[in-house]
Amino acid sequence: MTETAAPIPTPTAPAPDILRCASMELVVTDLEASRKFFVELLGLYVTEEDDEAIYLRSFEEFIHHNLVLRKGPEPAVAAFSYRVRTPQDVDRAQAFYEELGCRTERRTDGFVNGVGDSVRVIDPLGFPYEFFYEVDHVERLAWNYELYGAGALVRLDHFNQVTPDVPRACRYMEDLGFRITEDISDSDGVEYAAWMRRKPTVHDTAMTGGDGPRMHHVAFATHEKHNIIYICDKMGALRMSDRIERGPGRHGVSNAFYLYILDPDGHRVEIYTQDYYTGDPDNPVVRWDVHDNQRRDWWGNPVVPSWYTEASRVLDLDGNIQPLVHREEPSEMAVTIGADGFSYTREGDEKGTYSGEASKGFKLGNQL
Fold first, then answer.
1. Cβ(279)–Cβ(204) below 8 Å
2. Calpha distance 190→349 (Å, rounded)
3. What CA–CA distance (Å, rounded) separates 348 from 363?
4. How far is it, in rounded angstroms, from Cα 19 to Cα 21?
5. N or C: which end of the chain has fewer CB within 10 A?
6. How many angstroms separate the CA atoms of 242 and 172, rounded?
């Protein structure tokens, strides 16, 4: 591991106009096992496939794919892909990152099937980002209810990235045109995580403090809470409950209903629904205290340690695993373990408001 780098300068080149997070390319070690997970369990629709890769999309998508599963020797993330507003924004993305001194690679015929002219970069945080406009259109399946399952995934919602220095990452993402919607910090000014958006929802990506660069999760949206509950029931029926890492539950941050599950390679997938609109220019930032028990789970349920410690590695443009940079500031997990005076349900409630309750509304037992 290496030391955290200096602040990232703001380029003079204009940032590309990013529309939304659009797809992710995952490297998986067993393509058939991954197919069973993402297609047979989660119901993503196969756009095309061969012996080396499977291209999947959600039911309301009209571009070629939202997820690429590519066979490889070890699990990793090959690309976090964003769609931009115009073909000229691909040029802008290339110029933006070249001014930052980042490695870029441009392919007019695309890096993956179904996508045309695009640029891939290793960004200043060490993540493999892709920017594209040209894409093959495919049938939007929103009206094909005969294909919908009870847990239908309707769109790609967001990424979540693990990086050591959250403020440094946020300032760079703001230069790229992202806006912060929510964050978690403490009274000492330590920032533990931040949520940032381009489309008018809570986030297209989030930056979570930890050793990075790593991918914490990729998230797909459903329409309703019952879709998520069905997925839990289905996983139980298939004796896959050990792949349910966390949830179902309600987030404080984002207000969304959630479920976290692990694919056969340990890539974390969130199933997500019912966050809120953030598109107005004066949309206020929601700030959470890291010691608030309800920030991660609105019902105050504990967060399993693996959710804080485990994440997927990412690749460079040559397909090599990126080295990790160590987080120097305190971890969110470390400062929120246990009913030990570091967390609360009701801030300032030192004696316990209700009969029999612990100070500040602690639950019994260990809690992160």
1. no
2. 23
3. 16
4. 7
5. N
6. 37
Decide: 190 and 291 in contact? Cβ < 8 Å.
no
For residue 16, which of 198, 263, 211, 268 has the smallest C-alpha distance?
198
- Residues of the chain predicted below pLDDT 50: 1-3, 338-339, 341, 365-368
Look up residue 330 and give its two tokens.
């305190």
CB 26 within 8 A of CB 220: no
- What digits encode the pLDDT tens for the residues 271-312? 999 999 999 999 999 999 998 989 999 998 889 999 999 999
- Burial of 359: CB neighbours in 10 Å, binned 0-12, 13-18, 19+: middle
User: The whole model's pTM is what?
Assistant: 0.95
The amino acid sitting at 253 is V
> Nearest CA to 340 among 308, 362, 357?
362
Where residue 65 falls (left for φ over 0; alpha for ψ -120 to 50; beta otherwise) is beta
